[in-house]
């Protein structure tokens, strides 16, 4: 309001008179303005009041003007100043002149009036302002309450987050808080899953049954889809008129007003919140939207954080899993086993109990892996793991150490025989064939058992004792279990030592071949030589092939060793040929060479390769090479075996069956395979003079071989009596100590120079 001036307070009841006029009766409050010549345009001469007239009843206005002290004020001075002038001169009225022109009068009364008016106006304004202020205050208070509530809700979200990882709890709490805050009847949160689809709905104002009927929202369509895709908020005052409101599922309660905001953080949209129908019926306003957005932002931070925590947790879990479990079978691994063994030892020690450790190694797993491939091998390991686990009680642990090695931990044994029972149960469970990729696969296992506290006091020792007894079980023919004894320990150590040295033997040139002559009984001439490998180890001395060949087969080392034997034998036969004494050389083949280690599709069989290379390198005629295979080799994979034998036969090499009579002795297959020679096993020859049935067997084999046009070589002939019997049975060729032990190449030269062998 402006400053109050004299102009604002001019007195309205002013009577303009001429100076020569005589006063007449007027109202008590009137003031006379006296002019010369004209009341409109004349010169202002002064003022007179009712009191002046009463005091001088006979005077004309000119006298009264002259009698009154003349003071005037400008209209722009403040009322305060005017009052001060009146006070100073004892006046209650003043003329107001602006540049000599009469503007009116100001009286104490008019000023008072104006002041009262002004005060009233000010009071009114103050009231309005006060109300405004009160309203604003109320607004501020309500905002601060809302903000406090929002803050509280956000804090609760974080608290929930700290105490639970279940996101739906978090969201439920979020949507409830927000709906309450904005007084919305319905509210819901939808969160996007990894593939961008809307998942994880939480509702408020809608019961679980209805929520179920509403079902999932159409993904990406309708209004709410827009909110997510465009990352924008949306406010509708009347949904029924909006063309895209069809995006709501049909069972959703009818809604009029809608507020939807995205839950987004750093351009990443996590989902959306929608609220509808405020309880007071009003549409959602900008403040509601701001509040919902602020809330959604808090929620997005929480979700972002929760996701990060979840991701870290999952990563930690999978790291933890990887550290303690075998990825293929899902069984615990060595690390977890260590924990369990330590715990078991602790309890067993306190309760004076025993612990059993079973070390299980599959017997023919390598063959399965090599012939059927790694995928089938892996499947087999999984099935084996399941069968082992099925044999165990709660509290026992099956562990995969790696490869085809498993451990069973029996933490609470009262009797060592219980460990034996479990072992035999496991062996039995492995007997039925496994159906792997349309193949029926048979496997067995060798199990070694060690017992705490009898055999060892910690995990490493328990495993090593069980490992030792497992080797012993293998040695005893596989598919059985053995307890640990100190002798076994020695034997296992030897086996392990052997393996270590065998791995280096080939490259360190520690092998050589000896040759045992095969003799024509009638003439004494040498018809061939069987190549027999010898290993002279600098550390172990002479090692028998009966000891290291099975190990070479188990470890796969037989393949390079076998190739070396073929090459060396062919070179030797070629050198005999070169000096004019062509002699056939017979080479033993092991099953592992025959049934190969993973052949690549379309590539040549590794054995065929090795044979061709050896012949080629030595430049040897194929008919001077004989390949000895056992009956059991023949019986595995009949079709592929037949194919390979035919190929070898076509090359021109000769084929013989070693140890004939000890295996299936199926005579019928002899007709089917391109075999040239049968070698009667030395076990029959050994007792031929004393055991009539052995004699009968040898007789039958010889007769049948003759029928089939096969040569027969009897092995292990040590005595003249045995030789006589064999001659009687018309067995033409023999091999054995009677004529000669296996000879070094130099010794062979000496014998060859003699031309014939005499027993
Ligand atoms: N008691 C007795 N034994 C006789 C007599 N005549 C020969 N022997 C022995 O009987 C074994 C015959 O070889 P095998 O049955 O193929 O049995 C062989 C063969 O299965 C395997 N082997 C030897 N060299 C090789 C090889 O280069 N490759 C493969 N895969 N196996 C081989 O090792 C086995 C043992 O070979 P060796 O110790 O050389 O033992 C040889 C030989 O020394 C006899 O009159 N009395």
Descriptive account of the structure:
This protein is α/β, with parallel strands linked by helices and 759 residues long. The chain folds into four domains: 109 residues, CBS-domain; 153 residues, GAF domain (Beta-Lactamase, 2-Layer Sandwich), CATH 3.30.450.40; 151 residues, Alpha-Beta Plaits (2-Layer Sandwich), CATH 3.30.70.270; 246 residues, TIM Barrel, CATH 3.20.20.450. Helix content is 47%, strand content 21%. Strands 18-19-21-22-23-24-25-26 form an eight-stranded mixed barrel, surrounded by four helices. Helix 16 runs parallel beside helix 18. It is rod-shaped. The protein starts with 13 loop residues before the first strand and ends in a 5-residue tail after the last helix. It binds ligand C2E. Ligand C2E binds next to strand 19, helix 15, helix 16 and strand 23.
The CATH C-level class name of the largest domain: Alpha Beta
Total domain units: 4
Low-confidence sequence ranges:
161-166
Present as ligands are: ligand C2E
Radius of gyration over all CA atoms, rounded: 58 Å
User: Which strand order does the major sheet show?
Assistant: 18-19-21-22-23-24-25-26
Kindly, what is the distance between the CA atoms of the first and last residues, rounded to a whole number of angstroms?
148 Å
Q: What name does the CATH topology of the largest domain carry?
A: TIM Barrel
Taking all residues together, what is the mean pLDDT?
A: 85
Shape: rod-shaped
Determine the strand fraction and express it as a percent band: 15-25%
Sheet of most strands: 8 strands, mixed, barrel
What structural class do helix, strand and pairing data support? alpha/beta
Topology, number of strands: 26
Described by its quaternary structure, the protein is: single chain
- CATH superfamily membership of the largest domain: EAL domain
Helix-residue proportion: 40-55%
Number of helices: 25
CATH architecture of the largest domain: Alpha-Beta Barrel
Keywords: CBS domain
Domain GGDEF: 353-486
Domain CBS: 66-122
Pfam families: CBS (PF00571), EAL (PF00563), GAF_2 (PF13185), GGDEF (PF00990)
